[in-house]
Amino acid sequence: MSFLAQTLEGSAAAVSAFGVSTRDYDALPDDRVLELGVAIAAHERAFGLVKAQHAAQVARRSRREFGHTGLAARNGFASPQKLLQQVTKVTAREAGQLVNLGNAIGEAEAARELLDNGVTEIGGVPVETAWDEPICRAVTTGALSVECADALRRGLGKPDGDITAERLRELATELLRGYGELPADALFQRARAERDLNDLDGIAARQQEQYLQGGFRLFRKANGMFGYAGQADPESAAVLMGALDPLTSPRRGGPRFTRPEDIARAKAIVDDPRTTERITLDGLVALVKAAGGLDPQTIPSGDHTLVKVLVPAASVEHAEADEAELPPQGFGVIESTGTTIAVGTAEAGLCDSRWQEITIDTCGNPLDVGRTRRLFDRRQREALAVRDGGCMWPECLQPPSFTEAHHIEQWKRDRGRTDLENGILLCRFHHLLLHNNHWELHRDAEGRYWLTPPAAVDSDRVAVQLESKNLLTRARQRSRQRPGSPPSGAPLPELIAT
Fold it and tell me: Which superkingdom heads the taxonomic lineage of this protein's source (predicted)?
């Protein structure tokens, strides 16, 4: 019996052991329900390999050179993806995903076999290890699901320019070692961040590619309603989110308010009988109506939806100096989405935007007010947004606008100070979870932040290091660890929020 067959049989048996009926599953205690999830994931990984290998075979037997004698064409399908959709009942996206991954696994195995047999070139072309071999190997050993493998491959991209196949292979190995247990969407974001941090020159090209992929379509449906479909590039999405989020954020986990007028506004939104989606649509229509009669040539400068972009001060100085012979350095980050943008895009935004300087050190502690005030003020919140980049809870993706400032040494219990080093951003859900379920936060001497779970979650109470969601902050923290970098706490160039 093959290793794959043993894996499939073992994982299937492990899942079936939990029961077959609703009554069986209702009888499971909570810890067994969690164990069932782990068993299902293991079986999905094993079966995903079978699906990818099957898709690759369908694609190979349907190659264009076979014409109408290929497997897909003989069965009446224009492509192997169309055949897979019909036979295995997967979506078009999943069919393409399976074909691409299956082919990658086959190519990686073929290259490795040739190299192991001493074959270093064929027809004058060198045989090289595939850049995504670590990803393919993780799939074949059952350590990675098809969805996560696809997320890693898409996030890292392909070798190009200064990013060699060897460097991508190293990044893939590092991501698998450090973040291989993450779900696919979080893994994609990690992979894309690593690509951006290692390929600053390619950010502009990737940004332009995303821009061209964006679009919006309105269409009539059979029931008399109109549907809409499309996707937005990160810049466009930031504008839309900045305009529409305030309409519904109290319903969707937005921060709690302290001023009476803000509390009243939030309550009105929560109590509104319309659905959240209806409120959003009404708001969008109102914005279009309001802008529909305006002449774009007469719109006052600065009357735009607020979108914050964080860029190193060096980029601003470059823009103001207008030194065209100098190549742009670094990158910017859209605060609301955490997405990187090219320096050129940030410079263009500075031409028609207000901006402010925030000088930070590597730990991000520019403004301290001790115990003179309980709440963090606006400028401190701006500084925390730059340092933390959103909710600092592991893998939470809420942006700074959906967070609250938490005292690590709590104001009442610990007599904590309202200083930047004692503050951290948490979304409302995780802020309440921390207080109600007795999680603990602390800051070490190196300026790193750690989250310790309660004994009910982890009997050993192993602390987890928290990482900023802001790529600029992460890049600075990395540079601090290199030889010749400034010591912890040394001043760094300003960050500009526009």
Answer: Bacteria
Q: Which of 268, 298, 328 is the last residue of a domain?
A: 298
194 and 219 in a single domain? The answer is no
Answer for the pair 28, 15: CB distance below 8 angstroms, yes or no: no
- In sequence order, what are the residues at sequence separation of 6 or more whose Cβ sits closer than 8 angstroms to the Cβ of residue 490? 361, 362
Q: Look at residues 242, 274, 298 and tell me which one is the last residue of a structural domain.
A: 298
Q: Are residues 192 and 223 in the same domain?
A: no
Spatial separation of the C-alpha atoms in residues 279 and 265, rounded to whole Å: 14
Of residues 482, 238, 467, the one with CA closest to residue 364:
467
Q: Which domain holds residue 83?
A: 3-198
pLDDT string in tens for the chain (498-residue length) = 465 667 888 899 999 999 889 999 999 999 999 999 999 999 999 999 899 999 999 999 998 888 889 999 999 999 999 999 999 999 999 999 999 999 999 888 888 888 888 888 888 888 888 899 999 999 988 889 999 999 999 999 989 877 899 999 999 999 999 888 889 988 998 899 889 888 888 888 888 888 889 998 988 989 989 988 899 988 888 888 888 888 888 877 777 776 777 788 888 888 888 888 888 888 888 888 777 666 555 544 444 556 777 776 655 555 455 444 444 456 777 777 777 877 666 666 555 555 555 555 555 455 444 444 556 777 778 888 888 888 999 888 888 888 888 888 876 666 777 777 788 899 888 888 888 888 899 888 878 899 999 988 888 899 999 988 888 777 776 665 555 544 444 444 455 444
Do 126 and 183 reside in the same domain of the chain? Answer: yes
Please report whether residue 410 resides in a domain: no
CA distance 469 to 474: 8
Q: Assess if residue 335 is contained within a domain.
A: no
Please, are residues 338 and 399 in contact by the beta-carbon 8 Å criterion?
Answer: yes
Q: Determine the Cα–Cα distance for residues 332 and 47; give it in Å rounded to an integer.
A: 41
**Would residue 433 count as lying in a domain?**
no
Q: Same domain for 111 and 154? A: yes
| pTM of the predicted model over 0.85 | no
Q: Which residues lie below 8 Å from residue 103, measured CB to CB, with a gap of 6+?
A: 56, 59, 60
**Residue 313 forms part of a structural domain:** no
Query: Does one domain contain both 229 and 168?
Result: no
Q: Rounded to an integer, what distance in angstroms lies between the CA atom of residue 16 and that of residue 9?
A: 10
161 and 20 housed in the same domain: yes
Closest CA to 254 of 306, 265, 167: 265
Q: What is the tally of structural domains in the chain?
A: 2
**Does residue 251 share a domain with residue 176?**
no
